[in-house]
From TrEMBL:
<keyword id="KW-0238">DNA-binding</keyword>
<protein>
    <recommendedName>
        <fullName>HTH-type transcriptional regulator</fullName>
    </recommendedName>
</protein>
<dbReference type="InterPro" id="IPR026282">
    <property type="entry name" value="MJ1563"/>
</dbReference>
<dbReference type="InterPro" id="IPR052362">
    <property type="entry name" value="HTH-GbsR_regulator"/>
</dbReference>
<keyword id="KW-0804">Transcription</keyword>
<comment type="similarity">
    <text>Belongs to the GbsR family.</text>
</comment>
<dbReference type="InterPro" id="IPR036388">
    <property type="entry name" value="WH-like_DNA-bd_sf"/>
</dbReference>
<dbReference type="InterPro" id="IPR011991">
    <property type="entry name" value="ArsR-like_HTH"/>
</dbReference>
<feature type="domain" description="HTH marR-type">
    <location>
        <begin position="33"/>
        <end position="78"/>
    </location>
</feature>
<dbReference type="Pfam" id="PF12802">
    <property type="entry name" value="MarR_2"/>
</dbReference>
<dbReference type="InterPro" id="IPR000835">
    <property type="entry name" value="HTH_MarR-typ"/>
</dbReference>
<dbReference type="InterPro" id="IPR036390">
    <property type="entry name" value="WH_DNA-bd_sf"/>
</dbReference>
<keyword id="KW-0805">Transcription regulation</keyword>
Length: 170
């Protein structure tokens, strides 16, 4: 592994642990993303100096997040993995998967809590706060849905607006 790739892979692993994924899984994903050719589990284990079983579990996790694609190479019985070439596709996948795992269950719990009859003024107050949070998360979810419909080119233009939008709104 070149020093540039190694540095990125190591950093991505450290950041992965802050994002709620295993350090090794973060390193594996970074390595796959930076690889020009599809990578198999043995290559990952050797490159990252981790056990083959750790790599297998990590690949299953990356597959469950829809972040890697399984590929077969003619004449080779090993499974190979690639990441999408388009970073926008990776971002969309991460947004969708985090939504399914984190936001949707939270909205479900909030809806259920809002349907309960409050027992006292404390619960009424709590429900009003839950409702405010629910509305905000719903609004952000709808916004995210709209953003996801844009092309990468449109998204890039929108993101470049940045400070210009805040000036227009003030």
């Amino acid at each position: 592994m070149s020093p540039l790739i190694e540095s990125f892979v190591r950093h991505f692993g450290e950041m992965g642990s802050r994002w709620g994924i295993n350090r090794t899984v973060g390193q594996m994903y970074a390595y796959i993303v930076l690889s020009e050719e599809p990578v198999n589990a043995d290559e990952l284990a050797a490159a990252l100096s981790v056990s083959r079983s750790n790599v297998s579990m990590g690949l299953k996790e990356l597959q469950s997040w829809n972040l890697v694609r399984l590929q077969h190479i003619a004449g080779d019985r090993k499974d190979y993995f690639t990441a999408p070439e388009d970073v926008w596709e990776i971002a969309r996948t991460l947004i969708n998967e985090r939504r399914k795992r984190e936001i949707d269950p939270t909205l479900t719990v909030m809806r259920e809590l809002l349907m309960d009859k409050p027992a006292d003024s404390g619960e009424r107050y709590a429900q009003s706060r839950i409702e405010d949070m629910y509305k905000l998360i719903e609004m952000m979810t709808h916004w995210s849905d709209e953003i996801q419909r844009l092309s990468p080119k449109q998204l890039a233009r929108m993101l470049k607006l940045g400070a210009g939008v805040s000036k227009l709104l003030s």
